[in-house]
Structure formats: C-alpha cells, structure tokens
Specification:
Layout: E1 10-16, E2 34-39, H1 48-56, E3 62-65, H2 68-71, H3 75-87, E4 91-94, E5 99-101, H4 107-141, H5 153-161, H6 166-173, H7 177-185
Parallel strand pairs: 1-2, 1-3, 3-4
Antiparallel strand pairs: 4-5
Helix pairs in contact: 5-6, 6-7
Length: 187
C-alpha cells in the first residue's frame, strides 16, 4: 500500500500519433491495473490521457510505457516527466529499452535516458523536415491544397454566436483553438 492507503498500481501509458493508428503492439501481454491511451502527437505533454495519468498515479505506483518516444518526443519534456514522477515516488519502466527509473541516482540510466530521448527528439525533427520538404515540392507542382477542413467556418461561427467561448467551441467541434481563432478572424 502507498501513503494514501491505495494498493500500488501498475499503470500503462500508450500513445500513437493519430486516430487511425493501432495501439495493440504497445504493452501487449503486460499485466496492468489501468491503461491511459492518447491518440495524438507526442510533441508536447499537453495530452489529455497523459495529464489524467499524472493525476492518477501515487507514490509506489509503477508506470509502464512501451518505449521512450511514446512518453515524449522532446528531451526536455522527457527528462522533466521522469524527474517529476520519480521525485513523487512513482517508478517508470520503458518496456522496449528495458530501462526502469525508481528515483535512485544511477548515472548510467540517466545517460541512457538522455541519449534515447535525444534520438526521439531528432526523429521528430527529421519527420517535420521531410514533411516540410514534401509540402514544398507538392506546392511547386500545384498539387498541395492543404488539409481538408473537418469543420467549416460557418459551424464555428454558429457555435460562437450561440454564446460558446472560443475554447468551448473548439472542444465541442473537435478542432483546435487556433482553428476557431482563424475562422473568427476571417469574419
């Protein structure tokens, strides 16, 4: 039992970058008490299920993540998450890399975490660079029109006209706050 009288939990965190990606390969066969799953980019830590996991775990709990890049794509974010959690007495295990962090001072593990986190950050940078290059080439050929809108500007304006805040309209329509702002600026 931990300090709040709750049984220690083994909690899984799964993340894929988009809604249509499959999560089954991550943590398959690992016995877990609870699983939190995000289906969006790991570019920031502002992910609903990650935030829910951070609120849920308590001292003595263990978090299991398939691989380091599933937790964070930024070295700064990764190091901060691991440090904050281990300071709270939460253990973190990266299944693929076979690394576990318990809060003990282990220079080799810190080096491995920093190196693997740097690789994840580098991979993200390379993906973004290739994406920009591909878009530029497609624009040169006149075939790139941008992403098709999931919600038209009229629906956004209607939500705002009904009295919803920009943030509430974005949430209810399933779009970003910046999408709502752009739609309202175009008025």
């Amino acid at each position: 039992m931990n300090t709040e009288g709750k049984e220690m939990a083994k909690v899984g965190y799964i993340r894929v970058s988009s809604l249509d990606q499959n999560t089954e390969r991550q943590l398959d066969g690992v016995a877990l008490d609870k699983v939190f799953t995000d289906k969006l980019s790991g570019a920031t830590t502002d992910r609903p299920q990650l935030q829910a996991l951070l609120e849920y775990v308590r001292e003595g709990d263990s978090i299991v993540v398939h691989s380091i890049d599933r937790l964070a794509r930024s070295l700064v974010d990764l190091l901060k998450l691991v440090e904050d959690l281990t300071k709270r007495g939460v253990h973190i295990c990266f299944h693929k890399e076979k690394l576990e962090f318990t809060g003990e001072d282990n220079p080799t593990q810190h080096l491995m975490l920093s190196m693997m986190g740097a690789v994840a950050q580098f991979e993200r940078s390379m993906i973004k660079e290739r994406q920009r290059e591909g878009i530029a080439k497609a624009k040169e050929k006149g075939v790139y029109k941008g992403r098709t809108k999931t919600v038209d500007d009229d629906a956004i304006r209607a939500a705002i006209a009904e009295g919803q805040s920009f943030r509430k309209a974005a949430e209810s329509l399933g779009v970003s706050l910046s999408t709502v702002q752009r739609a309202m600026k175009a008025v």
